Amino acid sequence: MSVPPASLGDAPPGETPPGDALEFQRLPVTPRPPSQRDAVLAAPVFGRTFTDHMVTARYTEEAGWHGFTVGPFQDLPLSPATSALHYGQAVFEGLKAYRQPDGSVALFRPELNAARFAASAARIAMPPLPRAAFLASLGALLEADHAWVPDGADRTLYLRPLMIATDRAVVAAASGTYLFVLFASPAGAYFDGGIRALRVWVERDQVRAARGGTGAAKFAGNYGAGLLAQKLARERGCDQVVWLDPERRRFVEELGAMNLFLVAREEGRDVLLTPPLSDSLLAGVTRGSVIDLARDAGMTVREAPIAIERWRDGARDGDIREAFACGTAVAVAPIGSIRDATGDTVIGDGRPGPVTLAIRQRLLDLQFGRADDPRGWRHTVWKAT
Ligand SMILES: Cc1ncc(COP(=O)(O)O)c(C=O)c1O
Predict the structure, then answer these.
(1) Which of 153, 194, 239, 337 could form a disulfide bond with 198, CB atoms 3.0-4.6 angstroms apart?
(2) Which domains does the chain have, with CATH numbers?
(3) For the whole prediction, is pTM greater than 0.85?
């Protein structure tokens, strides 16, 4: 049984409804036999193995969003002249389905991904998918693919909504036609073999986003722009890049494709610090959730600019005791040291700290249904009848 998700968010003014009323055409699909599915789920390779189904829809100026279909996961036939391949109109989302202790399947705050998908599209001059249609598509895919949501510690089904421009036109202008695709990839635990602290590279030459740019959108081009720095960071023995602000190259913004937090000691208490939202960083669902969870637990959380030297010197003096990154893929990732051309600075004892681990546990317990959900963040999308 699928639980209609349309109540999760109404179409904002100006958007045509769908939601509950949305009809999905269902194409014939031959699912893989359970033995093959179980073999994939026993050792999921994140982002490289996919489920049996996908949802698609089309946009034209005349018909708006239409043709919502649940069909087989398959390659897309694309002309070499497809606009997205040349001019980059492509936005996406990332969220997960979590198997609950009673066997049902839940999403975590999917209405925020729906809103961000719409905002990302608008920033790249693409037609926002109505939020209710986004949520109904998640429900339709999970109804078809619920058996692909893994069981077991930290295992999830990663969901990837994508929108691309499809005009067959080598013309540098906003496309008139678009394709929405939603597909899924089973994911194992991010930290296979036990949680460890990351070593991160402070990037001073390249920037991820500019003032007035696209950094606050989940726009494909942002990720392409970050790949070289990520490659160089790896060559320098680091896991991820610390992005600094685009103007002064001084204030920390994000860590790779994750948001960033520091744990500082102030007047005998642990305080969480995180960079404020701006047009050069992505407002993570996890970031917002961590802030709320920390405040619920009585911690002070300060959203204010953090200079890189404040982080480095604070870590050396012992007043910055922990650091972590957060995002849907990883949940919460401890940071053990920062590296730049001047050398390494270890944070705390270089290992995952207690505040970081407690926040991580709290978040995962909520997502996997092991803890009460007073804020109503979990949304059941599938239940056995
Ligand atoms: C650039 C960037 N920052 C932060 C995040 C974390 O966002 P969320 O917590 O919604 O996954 C992501 C991942 O989506 C990202 O791509």
Answers:
(1) 239
(2) 5-192+374-382 (3.30.470.10), 198-351 (3.20.10.10)
(3) yes
Burial of residue 346 (CB within 10 Å: 0-12, 13-18, 19+) is middle
The answer to whether residues 253 and 307 touch, using CB atoms and an 8 Å cutoff, is no
| Angle between helices 285-296 and 110-123 in degrees, nearest 10 | 140
Q: What is the DSSP string of 182-217?
A: EEEEEE--SSTTS---EEEEEE-S--S--TTSSTTS
Average pLDDT over residues 219-247: 97
Question: What is the predicted pLDDT for the residue at 20?
Answer: 55
Tokens standing for 24?
Answer: 């999905």
Please identify which residue in the block is written with the tokens 């034209």. 60
Alpha carbon distance 232, 240 (integer Å): 10
Atom of ligand 1 nearest to the CA of 254: 3
pLDDT at 246 over 80: yes
Cα 112 to ligand 1 centre (Å): 12
Check residue 148 and report its DSSP letter. G
Given a contact cutoff of 8 angstroms between Cβ atoms, the answer to whether 305 and 274 are in contact is no
CA of 221 from ligand 1 middle (Å) equals 14
161, pLDDT greater than 50: yes
- Read off the amino acid at residue 268: G
List residues bridging with 28 in a β-sheet: none
> For 316-332, what is the mean pLDDT?
97
- CB contact at 8 A, 335 and 348: no
Cβ atoms of 303 and 353 within 8 Å: the answer is: no
Residue nearest to atom 7 of ligand 1 (CA): 284
pLDDT in tens, 116-138: 999 999 999 999 999 999 999 99
Instruction: Please list the residues that pair with 183 across neighbouring strands.
Output: 160
